[in-house]
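Thread: Modeling a multi-component assembly for a lab meeting

Hi all, long-time lurker, first post. My supervisor asked me to bring a structural picture of a complex we are working on to next week's group meeting, and I have zero experience with this. I have the sequence lines for every component (831 residues in total). Could someone generate the structure of the whole assembly? Inputs are pasted exactly as I received them:
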Amino acid sequence: MSIAEDAPPRKTGFRFERWAPLILLVGAFVIYVGIALATDQAQYLTFDNLIAILGRSIALGITAIGQTFVILVASIDLSVASLISATAVLASVVMDGSPAMIVPAVLAAVALGGVVGVTNGLVVSGLKVNPLIATLGMSLIIQGCLSAFVSNFAGEVPEAFQVFAYGEVGPFPLALLFLAAMAVIAWAVLKFTKFGSDMYAVGGNEEAARFAGIKTGRIVVLSHVICSVCAAIAGLYLASRLRSGAPWIGSDGVYDLESIAVVVIGGTVLAGGRGGIWGTMAGMLIFSLIDSVFNIAGVDSFAKQVLRGIIIVAAVAFYAIRSKRIVA
Amino acid sequence: MTDPVIEMRGITKTFPGVRALSDVSFDVRPGEVNALVGENGAGKSTLIKILSGVYHADSGAVHVGGEAVHFAHPVESLRAGIAVIYQEFSLLPERTVAQNLFLGREPRTRFGLIDGAKMRAETKEVLALFAAAGRIDPDRTVGELDVATQQVVEIAKAVSTGARVVVMDEPTAALNEAECEELFTTVDTLRDRGVAIIYITHRMREITRLADRVTVLKDGEVAARFDAVPAPDAIVRAMVGRDIEDFYAPPATPEEIGETVLTVRGAGNTVLHDIDLDVRAGEIVGLAGIQGAGRVALAMALFGETPFDHGEVTLNGAAVSFRNPRAAITGGVGLLPGDRKSEGLVLMQSVRDNGMLTSRAFAPLWASDRRNANADTGRMDDLLDHMEIRAASYDQDIRALSGGNQQKAIVARWLSMRPKLLIFIEPTRGIDVNSKAGIYHLMRDLAREGAGILMISSDLPEVIGAADRVLVMQEGRITAEFGHGASEQDIMHAATGEGEVAA
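Re: Modeling a multi-component assembly
Sure thing. I ran the full set together rather than chain by chain. Output:
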């Protein structure tokens, strides 16, 4: 007999885990408003300012969408930051100021993402290398190759491509709408396609998934490809925003660890099989709100790092305690 | 008569919304085996958890050796001499037998270092009590030992800590016949040494063989207490509250058996040799044999997980050679794995999602309910209804369900694929008596609807009772075949290839 059979039957209906990211988000928002009012800085509460806050997280959001897929299948990707740098530099060098080269540059960046994703996926699912190690190795390889060729801003992004980062549709930045569209697509893939249900199954119990007829290796490779392509898109966005690519933009943004933190704060279980895109989006918003709170409260940047660390650990501990209570 | 070493009086325990135990009294004396039986959910585990300090009773008293105790933590019950052997062992697989036995209380030399020689010597001393002693080297890593031997180590660990009471929670669940016999000898040894044993089991044969007294729990209350082992029927009646009629479904009549669904000729791989096998529509073929005889390997070969590397397999008249489970499923094979939790279920998903695992994997890319049967949740709900699964809702996490209901959800998963051949591996492992009967009847219904069924089981009475034909495997070969109604002795004889049969 297992513990579960002795446990009282669970009440269905309100499921805390599902709503926890939203609760945290509302909490973060209330704190933000509270601090803004308390420090008499109501000018930060305008619509434009909120949009600006979101605008700072777009690269992180795009990366985190990809990261959600790999974490759902119980893998992880530490190579996204290096890949972001590599694709930004690649796109900027290929474009080199020429609008005619935009399409080839985008294709090249996405293709590079695809190759990295396939490689990560095959190493993880085929060679059975622990994903932390596999993608850490990939990260070192990419960063090493990149540093061998470029050491400063390289190439130039034409005006036409800068629209990606600076364009606006009505009151909204184009990039923000793009992120929203990506989130909707990712949500639909997870919710409505067989790939989505296969991913939850593989992350939940790989053995059971294989016995149920799912080609588990392919699903792992596919989610790594999605993750790496997302990172490539984030690289394109950063190239557009910085008007050129540099080999440090990914690691400067700590996109590898921050994207994982965002996914986890969003309630996706690191062990795989449970979670989703909206949680990740909430996690991204929580992160940017926290940053803004620190900014308007004038917290010094080192203290900021410490506080962010504490918040990440506290959020995960919060989930762990809650989910333990459900089982025991 | 000696005084009880454990005496539990009027134990009541309530979980939110459920009364798990009400006014349960239970005792066990030194040198006796008190069999604690009951269906899943009857409260056996809760009672043991209260005894070992994992849970606290709402009311009632626990006396150990005549003194009232209030264990706040499992460590305290261990110190009081109560050792619980759970189904999942608490051994460290990467450490040696000696290291495991003395975990946390390693003998020291006068320099404060671990005294390896003394540890090994004492380990040998403790192991000498058990029949398996000759096989166990104190320096072997536990992970290298088979399950039965690991269990001996676990029990030896309890003995070496000076346990006066040993609780065994379905200890034979993972053992084959010969290993069970060895365990029974071990239990006898403990009893002779004056240890009190609480033995939790579902199997009547073990009760008859081992128990001095029997306590039956039902719905959190003591349903019956026997001071001597009664006839199995009396125990079953007390467990389920009524007679079980037609425990096994009747065997197939000749008219029910149809065309040959599966034919295997001269097939093999590294562990299987010269496999010839026929399974016809409407029949249940049992596969018996000791652990490692190749039964599961045969199932995995048919299912494409570890394929045959030579020989011919014909399914529904077409030659097939499945290289992976997905290909096998496409070809019309279904498999219910032996370890539900690690191979069958996605525990954190709902009952419905678990049922749809396979059909969704075969749905087209954009699968919506209305457009594709493989994504039709309504159809799955009908199947789950048909299986009479007891769940608060099909949206409930499947881990909260009983073993029997979990198994039914996996059956529903396969039904949705309409397989021609269904392979059941240990279909009733860890399932209570009532649900077992349900699974047997379900298998028979599936056969009647035209599926060929191959059933692998280590429970001999089950193979004999539920199958129309029994094949016996030994060392990767099919060595014997029996019709319905073969005796346990005949099958054991064929399975072990020995003249002497341990019945």
